Amino acid sequence: METAAEPFDRLIVVGEMRQALAGLMEIEGYTWNANGSLTLKGTLSGPAQNLYRTIRDRLEALGFTPFLRRRGDQDELVALPVVMARSPSRVVLPLVLFLLTVFSVLITGALYDYPNPITSDSQFLPVLWEIVSTPSLLILGVPFAATLLGILGTHEMGHYIVGRLRKAPVSLPYFIPLPPGIGIGTMGAVIVQREPMEDRRTILEVGIAGPLAGLVVAIPLLFYGLATSTVGSPPPGGYLQEGNSLIYLAAKWLVFGQILPSNGLDVQLNSIAWGAWIGLLVTMINLLPIGQLDGGHIAYALLGRRAEYLAYGMIGLCVVFGIAFQTFFWLIWAALSFFLIGPRHPAPLNDISQIGMAHKMLAVFGLIIFVLLLIPDPLRTVGV
C-alpha cells in the first residue's frame, strides 16, 4: 500500500473531500478518527452501486480509499488514508506449487492402487521409493490425481475467472502440497485476496463460483467412479469407512439400487470414486458458513454482519459433531475456524448495496448445497 502524504491540514482535506464528492454525496458532518481516517456523514445522491467506483476514483486521487456503510438513516463514507497498490498476479510461485502438488497427489494415488498391501510402517519408504523410481507404478496414481486435482483445480479457477470478470482483487490459486503418504497429498488451494471485495454481490458471485464449478466436475466423476467400482463385503482387518452425505448416499442408491453400507455390504471405491468423494468432502469444508471460507462469503452476502452469528453456531455444531461421533476431524475444524479463520467476515468496500432477489436465491441455493454435502461422520477406522 502507498500511504497518503503526511501531515495533512485537516480543514484543507475536508474541503478537497467536499469538492471531490460534489454531486455524489451531500455531506452533513464529519469526524476525524484516531487512525487518521475521516468519516463523512450524509446522504448519497443515488444508489451506492452506481456511485462507488466514481467515488473511489476521485478519493484515490487525494490519497484515500473509501468504505461505504449505513448507520441508522445516514450514509457514512470512511476515507482511509491509503491507496491500495494494484500489482499483477504472481505466476511462477503458483505454478511451482501446482507442479509439486501434482507430483505429491500422483504418488498418493499410486499408493492407493499399489498392488501389494503395505502391512507395516517399515515397508512404507521402500514402497515409496519403488513407486517414485518405477514409471509403470507411478502411472497407477493418474486416475486419482486427475480426479482430485480436476475437481480442486476447476473449483479454484471458478473463483479466479469470476473474480477477474467482476474486477475483484484475486490472485491465481496457490496449491498447497503435502509430503506423499500424508493425507491426500495436498491441503487444497487458496486464492489470495489483495483488498476487500467491492460489494456483497461480488462477494457472493466469487464465493459461490468455486463450489459450483467444482461440483460440475465432481458429480459426473463420482457417478462414473461408483459405476466402475464393486459392491462386496469389507476387507478383513481394519479399513477406512467413508461417511455419507445426502448427495453421496443418493448417488450410491441410484447406481447400485440400495442404501450402502447395509447388510454387511458396501461399495469398494476405486481410485476415481475415492478422489471424487474427497472432492465432495473438500467442497463441503469450503462451504462451511464461517469467516472467509466460501460458505462464509455466501452467508455474508445474504445476512451481512449477522452472518457472524451463523458462524458461531456452525463452530458450535462442529464441536457437537466431534464429541457425538468421537472424531477429531470436526474438533480440529472448530479450532481452526475459531482461532485461525475467524468467524467474522470483513466488510466490503461498499457495504450499503444489498443483493437482489435473484442473488438471494443463489445464496440460499449455496447454503442448501452445503446441507446436501454435509458429512456428520466423515471418516473412521472400522474393524481395528
Helix content: 40-55%
N-to-C SSE series?
Answer: EHEEHEEEHHHHEEHEEHEHHHHHE
| Gyration radius from CA atoms, angstroms | 25 Å
Trace the largest sheet across and list its strands: 2-3-5-4
Instruction: Please identify the structural class as seen in this structure.
Output: alpha+beta
* Separate helix tally: 13
How far is the first residue's CA from the last residue's CA?
Answer: 55 Å
Largest sheet: 4 strands, antiparallel
Number of domains: 2
Strand content: 5-15%
Mean pLDDT: 92
Shape: elongated
The poorly predicted ranges are 1-6
Q: How many E-type strands?
A: 12
Tag the structure with descriptive keywords.
disordered N terminus; 2 domains; 51% helix; elongated; 384 residues; 4-stranded antiparallel sheet; alpha+beta; two-stranded antiparallel ribbon; 13 helices; Gyrase A, domain 2
Would you write up a description of this structure?
With 384 residues, the protein is of the alpha+beta class. The chain folds into two domains: 82 residues, General secretion pathway protein M, EpsM (Gyrase A, domain 2), CATH 3.30.1360; 291 residues, no CATH class. A hairpin with an 8-residue loop joins strand 7 and strand 8. It is elongated. The N and C termini lie far apart (55 Å). The strands form five sheets. Strands 2-3-5-4 form a four-stranded antiparallel β-sheet, covered by helices on one side. The N terminus is likely disordered. The protein is 51% helix and 15% strand. It has 13 helices and twelve strands.
